[in-house]
Amino acid sequence: MAAAASNRARAGPSATLLALALGVGAGVAAPSPARADDAAPLSDERILGTTGSGLRLQSVTMRATAFDQYGHGYQSQAGPVLGPGSERATISEGQAEVIMKQGDRWTHRVWVPVDVVSAASPDAIDNGPRSADVVSSASHQVTGGTFDWTATYKVDRATDLSARNALHLEQPFRSWNTGLTATRSFADECTVLSAGVIGLLDWFDRFDVTGHRHGETSRSGTTGSVSLTQVLTPTTVANVNYGLTVLNGTLGNTWNSVPLASGDRGPELLPSQRVRHALVGRASQFLPWNGALRGYYRFYADDWGIVAHTVEGLLMQRLSAAFYVGALYRFHTQTGATFFTTLAPVDAPLQVADSKLAPLDSHTLGGRIVADFPVAGGVRALHFELGVERYYRTNDLQMNIVTWATGFRF
Amino acid sequence: MGHRVPFLAFLAALPWGCAAPAAVPAAPASLPSAEVETLEGVPAEVVRAAQGRVALVNLWATWCDACLDELDALNRLDATVAPARAAVVIGVAVGERRETVAAFARRRGLRYLQLVDPEFRFADAVGQRSVPATLVVDRDGRIVYRSSALDAGTLDALRRAMARQEARATP
Amino acid sequence: MRSPPIVLAVLALATASCATVPQNRRARLADPMMNLNDEPLDAYRRHKLYDTREGAAGGDGTAAGGGCGCE
User: Fold this and answer.
1) Is C24 on the interface with A (CB under 8 A)?
2) Whether the model pTM is above 0.80
3) What is the pLDDT of residues A64-82, one digit of tens each?
4) What distance in Å separates residue C66's CA from the closest CA in chain A?
């Protein structure tokens, strides 16, 4: 093929009478005559293809994940009255994502995750002798799904505006969030600055620690974030991100319980507001042996007294043009909420025994293998990924995760 | 708390310090005589490959998604203009290994002339720092149009250059 | 907020940030291995994992809150 092309180039110039076939007028000054004539071989439509405003599929990606969790937490009633109860849970999660282009400026992303959860903690309430109501059928198995649509408009070569809307439905729980993001690149896309705001509204049934339902309750949240991505060298890119979140309303699961010094269990008593700060730094470095190292650091602080540091490293190695493998390690450490307790005095103004608000460390170890196969024809590439992870938390929680993804690029 | 505001202001101001474009190579009016190579490894020059014809020169790379979006259109353009030798479509893969480009061109069925510019000699000499980039070159080697995309404007420029060529060839 | 080590990283980034790398020299950066973020569906999967198991997760640009069922 290449030789033929070379031969063609060597064949030498040849004046032609192609003008009529091309729809080109003989006059040099004629203003783009072929554009008005779509039948001409060199018309925009014939060469560039359809450029109308219809939707064109860019990619379809699906991911299936299984989470298998073991452990105990003091908020759970699936155990001794004053001891930690079981946090046994299994989660099956399916996700589908479709990305479409519309015209030259619009990109739409439609994403639907569905989670099927079976958890021991609400089960214990539902099966308890005092239970007058159930925590819906959520106590046995709950299915939650989200419809998430993001529309991105390319204002110019350097500026994108995105609007996002999502609706989440889960048996005792409904949630809606909406967001706007503006992204601007500078210096030939060496620097990308992004700023966004997300608003969130949750409504859910208020169940007490004995499983009785007391109408509905809600919470709202607003997150503002700024992000800066910078190409540092031909093999290094870095990003910093700062996010501020303010939450208001009922900020916990209303059926989570707290062991009391009286020998019984009481409800969580939480502040009605939480202000959270998160500062994240990321960097990726290409390695000379056709690998890459990604580093991540996150600092977190909130007004409930939690301060956290998280570091993560992902080392990847390309095995061939199609395959690469990766190994992940993540370490997280946090202080507990100032009102966290495993045995609260009866008259405490604030109390929580939720194990995720305790002082804790966690480790995640994982591996993945990724394959991208270029394909000729209508599908440009196929993407496959298999990942396994082991999560271990120092206050008695462990989880095994297996995830599988399949993608089509058009 | 005291230094949080100045820190965020510093973050916000950071990109503006970088917004000024770094030194951009001068964009010449004509195709430079920078050495590239064919897929067979033979030294070549883009201006010689055009052989005195109107040329559409597409600078691209196999890793560039926007470049890949244009390949089918370039194939169609080549199929339209090549048989009558009215113009020539030339792909110049920049910063790539010859073997990589050859395998890719074979797999994707690229039928137009492919040259490789592994050391960015041609790209730098012609003043193009981005891919994709499209140049329309007249029969005298003058660059009459530059674009970051193969679009209606590019085809317009190509048709005009071909019309001028035809006008000169007609007695 | 005390000065965390990330501030030093940002300062280092700032001093280097004006060295523009031409777009056509970014082949290595285009490799999928170099993505700074996880693929979005994988990111959601990880967000779900950490958000319901670590009180310090979230608050950095992703939607806060979420379902009750998986705790």
Assistant:
1) no
2) yes
3) 999 999 988 888 888 888 8
4) 7
